[in-house]
Amino acid sequence: MERMIDRTRLAPGRAAGWALLAMVAIGTFWCALTVLSRRGGPAPEDLATGPVAALPGDGPAASAPTTGSRPATGTATATATPWRPPRHTARQTERDDMVRVIRLHWRRDGTTEGIEPVAAAMAAVPRHEFVPADVAAAYDDRALPIGYGQTISQPYIVAEMTRLLKLTPTSRVLEIGTGSGYQAAVLTHFTPHVYTIEIVKPLADAAGRRLRRLGYRVVDARAGDGWHGWAAKAPFDAIIVTCAARQIPPPLIKQLKPGGRMVIPVGRPHMTQSLVLLTKDADGKVRTRSLMWVGFVPLVRPSESK
Fold first, then answer.
1. Is 153 a known active-site residue?
2. Who contacts 172 (Cβ-Cβ below 8 Å, separation ≥6)?
3. Of 3-17, 133-147, 276-290, which gets the smallest average pLDDT?
4. Which structural domain, as residue segments, surrounds residue 195?
5. Strand runs labelled E in 161-212
6. How many C-beta atoms lie closer than 10 Å to residue 182's C-beta?
7. Helix 155-165 / helix 115-124 crossing angle, nearest 10 deg
8. Whole-Å CA distances, 148 to 20, 25, 118, 198, 243
9. The CATH number of the domain where 227 resides is what?
10. Residue 171 lies in a domain
């Protein structure tokens, strides 16, 4: 961020002090030139990536990011550019209306902790870019089909699961079930360290391209079996599972850092499940708490993803 520089005035001195004042003025002039030469960041990245293999029925992008940059790679330096999520303005009124509905849910539940950053993220991510183009109700508060038997979650559930993770800018977060990439895009408004896995390869490939096209280039996405997590990128401060498992996968528990949090729907496929918050104490002790009833598509295993 640009920092305001406070400039103070030098009071006039006696005649004998004019030489000293002149030296100070010259030094201040050169310092000012140095500050001005260092202000501003690098030019925004060129975000064009060519055609996108999108969801079934998906069409050309309706919006494009106005800003966005990646964190510097390699050794960190004082001049490294911090991650700034892209800004999208298309259909902003609909997003704002969606956030008002989410706030109604929170008010009903008496939820106040951590809602403002999540509300801002939900208002920033263009949900209509993550659903098929022929779906008019992109901002309705309900799950929508995205093809291959998968869905994009209800906005309130996306917001609440995100809030429960309690992310910070340094958090490493793993998502199981990329889908169209919407949840991953929301997560980038809290941290640039986002990893996501999708078992359905056409969805995984399209989501990766879509996220890059829209400016969410910090997301590391791949196709794979989410049950086993992503050991090469572990451990994680937070894990979010956007598909229902009959039990909490042991590899995910292992890959969660002490002090970490996991949100996962647990229950039988195609039935009502329990949204579970799992926490791991500093000594590695695991605790779980059921929060609400939900309905998610099942966590698919390799033999079922063909």
1. yes
2. 191, 193, 195, 233, 235, 236, 237, 238
3. 3-17
4. 142-304
5. 172-176, 193-198
6. 26
7. 130
8. 76, 69, 29, 12, 14
9. 3.40.50.150
10. yes
Kindly compute the dihedral angle of the four CA atoms of residues 135, 139, 141, 142, in this order, to the nearest 10 degrees.
20
Give pLDDT, residue 61: 44
Ranking 68-82, 146-160, 184-198, 272-286 by mean pLDDT, the lowest is 68-82
Confirm whether 248 is domain-assigned: yes
Bridge partner list, 279: 261, 287
The whole-angstrom separation of Cα 170 and Cα 83 is 11
Residue pair 148/207 in contact by the 8 Å Cβ criterion:
no
């050794």: which residue's tokens? Answer: 75
Residue 234 covered by a domain:
yes
Q: Mean pLDDT, to the nearest integer, of 181-188?
A: 98
- Neighbouring residues of 161: CB distance < 8 A, sequence distance ≥ 6: 153, 183, 240, 242, 263, 275
> Is the CB of residue 189 less than 8 Å from the CB of residue 173?
no
Per the domain annotation, does 86 fall within a domain?
Answer: no
Dig out the tokens for 26 from the structure: 């010259």
pLDDT given for residue 302 in this prediction: 82
Which residues share a beta bridge with 261? 238, 279
Confidence category of residue 133, pLDDT binned at 50, 70, 90: confident
Q: Is the pTM of this model over 0.85?
A: no
What is the structure's pLDDT at 1?
A: 32
If one counts the domains in the chain, the total is 1
**pLDDT for res 66:** 56
CA dist., res. 20 & res. 140, Å (int)? 68
Higher pLDDT, 192 or 29: 192
Q: How is residue 68 written in tokens?
A: 């966005």
User: Residue 157: phi, psi to the nearest 5?
Assistant: -65, -40
Q: Which of 37, 63, 153, 180 is catalytic?
A: 153
